Amino acid sequence: MELPIFEPFKTKMVETVYKSSREQREQWIKDASFNLFNLKSDQVIIDLLTDSGTGAMSDRQWAAMMTGDESYAGASSYYNLKKAVTEITGFDFFLPAHQGRAAENVLFSALIKEGDLVPGNSHFDTTKGHIEFRKAIPVDCTVDIAMDFTAYYPFKGNVDLARLEDVLKSNPRGKIPCIIVTITNNTAGGQPVSMENIRGVSRLARKYDTSLFLDSARFAENAWFIKTREEGYPDKGIREIALEMFSYTDGMTMSSKKDAIVNMGGFTAYRDKELFRKASAYNIIYEGFITYGGMSGRDMNALAQGLYDGTDEEYLRSRIGQVAYLGSLLKEYGVPVLEPFGGHAVFIDAYSFLPLIPKEKFPGQVLAVELYIEGGIRSAEVGALMADRDPVTRENRFSGREMIRLALPRRVYSDNHMKYVAAAVNAVYERRKSINRGLKIKWEAPILRHFTVELERF
Ligand code: F0G
Questions:
Q1: pLDDT tens, 213-244?
Q2: In the CATH hierarchy, which fold is given to the domain comprising 64-310?
Q3: Does domain 22-51+313-457 match CATH 3.90.1150.10?
Q4: Taking a C-beta distance cutoff of 8 angstroms, is the pair 85, 94 a contact?
């Protein structure tokens, strides 16, 4: 008989989970203008807003923090991190940054200019924000099957190579400074990109004289899916797979708050020394000197260890297993969930969950609000609010789908917490036919509006 698998860690320190009543939550969400980002964390029972920066560090990471070197230049912590980055990614040149979007800012300052196109799979919202802020255009070439909620396809995060080639072919050389492939594809549901696809994109990048960068926030989870789903990889190690993924590219941006399991941090890495030098100037302006770039020495030490923690196979098995566990509980209740389940989160289809709420009334956000009221669970809308307005027409970008995301922090919640979450989602599902009031915008920022938007019921 095979014994059950379990988390490859045990708990050394605990944090209180704050409970609250439904009446309190009704009031708090109204006070928060129906924007879950405005809630205080102690008004939340289970926080699935994001898996970013919310993970629990290991004893090794905490121990590494104690030996942080806070020298302005040339700190040993920087060299620890450099060694880890080179070992895990294969890149010789890297620049620390305070988080993922800062890394994007550094890379894009060196690469992107007004009028450029930046194709790839679905860009994350800050990536899109940084591209559009430079008056360049992100082009989403994700495979069509990604839009089908339940169709099984092992790599729903993939780039449609034919579509990408059309974009590359129909634009002058020099107008497309880079292709960005996001692994895993967060916006499409934490869906992985196959090795074959990365190789294919790389080939096209070379053919059309452009470069390929990976937005690598969840590269280890992507490697896990390659190992478990792609032919030729089951016997390879996660780190071996990660090295191969990066070997096809010119560099990467990293939000270390995800797969490197730190609370803050990021970096860019480069193959080309010239580009590294160019980006170094921006790193110094925006982030700090090239041997700390927005990070303290202790945080660089924790990140170095986190890169090893996050690429541990046993850890990934339990991590991705927990996401699948939550997904399968929801599926048993009949809740419309995106399949196959992603690496970091379970996504719920808000259109079919709340058929009485038309898209103009933001059904994703309505569902997120209802789930908060029901069980104190904070999720994130991945729909029209997040999609923002078209920068030219200023029209709302209603897409074919509207979701909420239940993102699981790493090494934080137990499977009992997952049972509670699933039961609360089910309770909302059972009363879905009585949910008929939508939301409208009272105030919004001109870019990345979902973080600060204020809404009211109507
Ligand atoms: N790229 C991807 C794929 C991301 O998911 C994120 C952040 C970033 C870049 C930006 O990194 O937050 O460190 O500046 N995603 C978080 C999320 C916020 O909730 O998915 P950051």
A1: 999 999 999 999 999 999 999 999 999 999 99
A2: Aspartate Aminotransferase; domain 2 (3.40.640)
A3: yes
A4: yes
